[in-house]
Amino acid sequence: MRRIPARFAISAVLLVLGACHPAAPVAQPAADAPAAELDAARRAWASRGIRSYAYTMEISCFCIHRGRYNVEVRDGQLASVRDAQTGAPSPESRVEWILTVDQLFERMGQAVRLGTRVRAVYDARLGYPSEAEIGLLADDSGTLFRIEGLRPL
Fold it and tell me: What's the CA gap between 58 and 69, in Å, rounded?
C-alpha cells in the first residue's frame, strides 16, 4: 500500500474543511428596501399630478422591441409613439411594449412582488424612474428602460 505524503493529506483536509465552513455573512439590504423605495418614488410622482407629458424612452434588452422612442402621454394614456431616430410612427407590435410612467411603476411593482430583481434610479425632482432594470440585462433575462427629457405638456 502506497502512503500519501503528509503535505497532500493536510491540504486535502484543509480544502474539505474550508468547503464546509460557512462564508462570512454579507450585509444584505432589507427585503422590502426596493419595495419601500419604489412606493416612495411612486408617491412623489403621483403628488405632482402630471397626467400629460412627453419623453424619450430607450429600451435595452435581448428582444425585438429594443430601441429609442419619442413618447407622448395624454391624460395618462399613450397618445403617440414615434421612432426617435426617424420620427416615423412606431408599428403597433412595438407600441405594446412602450410604457407610461404609471405603467412602468406597475411593472416594477409586479416584479418586486414576484421576487424579480429590480434596480432603479429615480428623478430627484419628479420621482419617476429615469432608469429601471427589471431582471438582469447582463444575462439576457432583463429589460432596461430609460426615460429621458420628461416634460409636462
Answer: 6
**Which DSSP string corresponds to 101-147?**
HHHHHHHHHHHHHHT--EEEEE-TTT--EEEEEES-GGGTS-EEEEE
Let me know the angle formed at the C-alpha of 9 by 4 and 14, rounded to the nearest 5 degrees.
Answer: 170
Identify whether the C-beta of residue 134 lies closer than 8 Å to the C-beta of residue 111.
yes
Helix (H) or strand (E) holding 152: strand 143-152
Q: Which of the two residues, 16 and 118, has the higher pLDDT score?
A: 118
Query: Is the whole model's pTM more than 0.85, yes or no?
Result: no
Could you tell me the residue ranges of all domains in the chain?
27-152
User: What's the one-letter identity of residue 81?
Assistant: V
What CA–CA distance (Å, rounded) separates 66 from 59?
5
Averaged pLDDT, 120-125: 93
Supply the DSSP symbol for 75.
Answer: T
Cα–Cα distance for residue pair 47/93, rounded to 1 Å: 32
Contacts of 120 (CB under 8 A, 6+ apart): 34, 37, 38, 41, 108, 129, 131, 132, 133
Place of cell 429615480: 122
